[in-house]
Specification:
4-stranded antiparallel sheet; 46% strand; globular; WD40/YVTN_repeat-like_dom_sf
């Protein structure tokens, strides 16, 4: 953390991991978050394995869980208190802070992504843009899969290689 009079200070140090860290995601306190004092989280990933910790005000951390995407992940980030992992192969993993549930969903291979508010948008190689409202963590009733909704489909099915979303 950065404190004006003291500069940068270490807040958390993970235990020694047996693998090299390839991706890190940090979530600062989200006002009105579902985790109370555990709103600060850090995740580290290598290949398809992800470890998530909740950071305590005293600088200690408690492991929330170890999650597996099943394929090498390309991106690791937070949308609100929800941890998101994506893979170009067409998988997304979402850890929901309210339900404390890890959900993996197969989708079309992903070329790009962006987050806007609580929405995760995925640009895919079939010309479609899909979205998920990760705050509501919607699951389909029939199969308990994550509800991934198609927002747009390019008529020529050209891949969506970049997304940039801004909501007012």
């Amino acid at each position: 953390r950065l404190k004006e009079p003291a500069g940068w200070q270490q807040v958390f140090s993970s235990p020694r991991l047996d693998w090299a860290i390839e991706r890190v995601a940090l979530n600062a306190k989200v006002l009105g978050g579902a985790l109370g004092d555990h709103d600060k989280m850090v995740a580290a990933a290598s290949c398809s394995e992800i470890i998530l910790w909740a950071l305590q005000p005293d600088g200690n951390g408690s492991e929330i869980g170890v999650f597996h995407l099943g394929v090498p992940l390309e991106a690791l980030f937070f949308v609100g208190n929800q941890l998101i992992a994506t893979s170009h192969s067409g998988k997304i993993g979402v850890w929901n802070a309210v339900t404390k549930h890890w959900q993996i969903q197969d989708v079309v291979p992903i070329n790009s992504y962006d987050a806007a508010g609580t929405f995760l948008l995925l640009g895919c190689n079939n010309g479609s843009i899909y979205y998920v409202d990760v705050q509501k963590f919607p699951l389909r009733m029939k199969d308990n899969d994550l509800l991934v909704t198609e927002l747009y489909r390019d008529p020529n099915e050209d891949a969506v290689t970049a997304l940039s979303v801004y909501l007012t």
